[in-house]
Amino acid sequence: MVDVLSQNEIDALLAALSSGEMDAEELKKEDTQKKVRAYDFKRAVRFSKDHIRSLTRIHENFARYLTTYFSAQLRTFVQISVVQVEQLPYDEFIRSIPKMTILNIFEAEPLEGRMVLEVHPNVAFAMLDRLLGGSGTSPSKITALTEIETIVMERIFSRAFESLQEAWKTVVDLSPRLEALETNPQFMQIVSPNETIALISLSTKIGDTTGMINLCIPHVVIEPIMPRLSVHHWFVSQKKMRAPEEITALQSRLQRAKLPIIAELGSSVISVHEFLNLSPGDVISLNRVVDELLDIRIGEKLKFKGTPGTHRGKTAVQISEIISEGVEENDE
């Protein structure tokens, strides 16, 4: 990253050049020299800035879907938003989370490998309290989950992965599935300690309780789809083709749609005075001769020409001519 000088530093540099304390030629030589930058192989940079931006966009949608889902399930105020998306070694992530927490280990086909959705105990127990009829407060002392509490947690977070599937739909069709629920990070080893992960931190507020939800995605898991996280793929890729069953369903719905069909015998123009004095037996002359074809409209659009008649004792019209698309109607 390029360092930006403050105005005081710029003034001091100009003053030193003017007084001769610094030589401009020496500064130029320093710029031409190769600069060495320290690189920590334990913190390998696997995700580019482009990848981080794409992950941020995807999980901003994930946060909105989660907000809607938890609000409906808990029937209380829920607010979830993305705080940070960063890359770091897996071991550093494990050391940063509480010793007692909620770890939802899951897989997402077609990706190979496991990921983790870590929920801070404050948030998890506030959800549990709300689901079991409480006001949604977190206990002062966090204890191990009972069997019933574990089942309740598994059910609510299993369905939460539907939000993750929806958020990733623009990149890849995932099928997330909860594999296990752990409470001790030391028992969870999904990748090697030095493996780079993408950590998406979500700030979560449930009623008056606040906490974090962290999504851990190892680089080795999403490496096959990394090219799809580039801006080039998002804006230049071809439109997604509809599945054959979607096309069939759409055609079926269109074929069942009902449209108004109108056969016009003709039209006429009379004065308001003549209209007010109409009585049974009066005859109104139309602008169409008896043997002339009728206009048949679908909605407001002229589509056919036809001949009036009867069919099985009912008034009918027989289609005699099809109006081609783009043919202009005659002014009448």
From TrEMBL:
A Gene Ontology cellular-component term: plasma membrane
Subcellular location: Bacterial flagellum basal body; Cell membrane
GO terms assigned for molecular function: cytoskeletal motor activity
Superkingdom, natural source: Bacteria
Protein keywords: Bacterial flagellum, Cell membrane, Cell projection, Chemotaxis, Cilium, Flagellar rotation, Flagellum, Membrane
Cited Gene3D superfamilies: CheC-like, SpoA-like
Predominant localisation class: other
Membrane topology per record: Peripheral membrane protein
Organism: Paenibacillus thalictri
Protein name as it appears in the record: Flagellar motor switch protein FliM
Family per record: Belongs to the FliM family.
GO biological-process terms attached to the record: bacterial-type flagellum-dependent swarming motility; positive chemotaxis
Domain Flagellar motor switch protein FliN-like C-terminal, residue spans: 253-323
